[in-house]
Every structure is written in C-alpha cells, then in structure tokens.
Design brief:
single chain; mainly alpha; 3 domains; two-stranded antiparallel sheet; globular
Length: 260
C-alpha cells in the first residue's frame, strides 16, 4: 500500500466517496496547476473513474483561483468589474427614488459592501485593486450627494456618508479572524496550522497583512480576555477592536482635513 501510488490515490479520491455514497461531478471540478516548473508531463487526475479537466482558473466558494503569478489576479479583476457593475445598478435603480441620498447610502452599504468584502479576512489584494474599490466607493458617495462633477476632499465624502474605508473593513475582518483562531483549543486544525506556521516561521500573505494592519491601527495591545472557565470573550474583543479602529480612522480624518 505504501509503494503503490495508484492504489493509494484511488483510495483517497474514490473509495472515500463511495463509502459515503458521494458521486463526483467533473463539470463542477477542475485541476489547476499553480506551478508547473520542472514537473514534466502531469498525469490526468481521475476520481471514481472520471477524468477531471485541467483549467487555468477555478472558482471555489466564491473565490477565483488562477495559475498566474498572483493566484488571485482573476479574482481581483472580478472585484473591480463587480464594483463598476454595482455602481451602474445603483444609478439605474435609484434614479427615480424618493430620496436619492438615503437610498444610495443604504444601497451601497447593503449591496456593494458585502460583495466586495467577501472573503477579505483570508485573502489579500494588491494595492492597485484596493485603490480601485476605494475609488468606486467615492464615486458612489458623489452620486449620493449629487456632486458627480465636483472635486471635493475625500475626507468630506467619508464624513457625509459615514462609510468605513475598505482598509478599515479589512483590518477588522482579519484581526477578528486570527483572534478567533488563536482562541481555539490546540486540537482544532486551524489552530494547529497556525502553530505550525509559528514553529516554521512561515507567514502567509493574509497573516502578514493582518500584522501590518494591526500596527497601523494601533491594535498591538488588544488581547482576547477569558472568563473564569477559560472561555474566550471574543465579543468584548470585537467591540474594543471596532472602537480602536474607528478612533484611529477619525484621527487620520482630522489630520487629512487639517492638511487641506
């Protein structure tokens, strides 16, 4: 069994599913080779006798992965297209609304933000894509205020609409996510993976971005407290985190306005 790779692969990919009465659908699966350097001709992957197609990209749980150097490049392209599409939809649906400001404000926060921040706790986008999302939000703010042809300070737009920046949302998402993992028992696999990363001194892009955002928003001293039964008080941590991020954002806003 140890030396028969074909038998072992069949056991992992096929026998496991059959025992649980699961059937593979190759139309809903794909093989993406992230690095084909020096691997030669790769063999076809079969699951339950069905060959899985080879693709340059694949969307899994709403996240598009590709075989490019930046494996999230296709996903970032979709995010930028989604931001533009949502702006156009907002223009069309709210044009004849009873209150353009209130409806635009609610539409962007309720429709655009959830779509554009999906998965931001574990994914990291390039600075160019991040700026594109911030720009789209500023355009939405100008539309809501009916000043699309005017050049105004970004701080004015954020104060009038009371929207968080995408960087602020990402900071809260990533810090909450990793704090939740850190508070898990060591027997949980996410905590085991994080401990293994610490031992090997390996840092993922998401972890590095979390550390950078934690420092930028001055959250280094925030820790998760525990009750008498050693239960993590995550709710308390989340509230303090939101307050700290908001405080730092307000400080940056004041400095920005003072420099105008």
């Amino acid at each position: 069994m140890r030396r028969n790779h074909k038998l072992r692969r069949g056991f992992i990919t096929s026998a496991f599913g059959r025992t649980r009465q699961l059937t593979t659908n190759p139309k809903k699966s794909a093989v993406v080779v992230f690095s084909n350097h020096s691997i030669g001709d790769s063999s076809r992957l079969q699951v339950q006798g069905k060959v899985l197609p080879v693709s340059h990209e694949y969307t899994y749980l709403g996240i598009t992965l590709s075989d490019e150097q930046n494996y999230l490049s296709k996903h970032e392209e979709k995010l930028k297209m989604m931001a533009k599409k949502t702006l156009h939809q907002m223009h069309a649906q709210i044009l004849w609304g009873f209150n353009k400001f209130e409806m635009s404000r609610a539409y962007w926060k309720g429709v655009a933000v959830p779509k554009l921040t999906y998965g931001n706790a574990v994914t990291t986008m390039t600075a160019k894509t991040a700026e594109a999302l911030e720009k789209a939000q500023r355009e939405a703010a100008r539309w809501a205020l009916n000043i699309t042809g005017w050049r105004v300070a970004n701080e004015f737009l954020s104060s009038e609409l009371n929207w968080s920046s995408f960087e602020e949302r990402e900071a809260k998402s990533k810090l909450r996510y990793f704090a939740r993992i850190q508070s898990m028992p060591d027997s949980r696999w996410p905590k085991m993976m994080l401990n293994a990363m610490d031992l090997q001194k390996i840092r993922t892009k998401a972890y590095e971005k979390m550390e950078a955002l934690r420092s930028k928003f001055d959250c280094d001293t925030l820790t998760v407290e525990h009750d008498e039964e050693r239960g993590a008080l995550l709710g308390v941590y989340y509230r303090r985190l939101a307050e700290k991020v908001k405080t730092m954002q307000d400080k940056a806003w004041e400095e920005g306005m003072a420099g105008k």
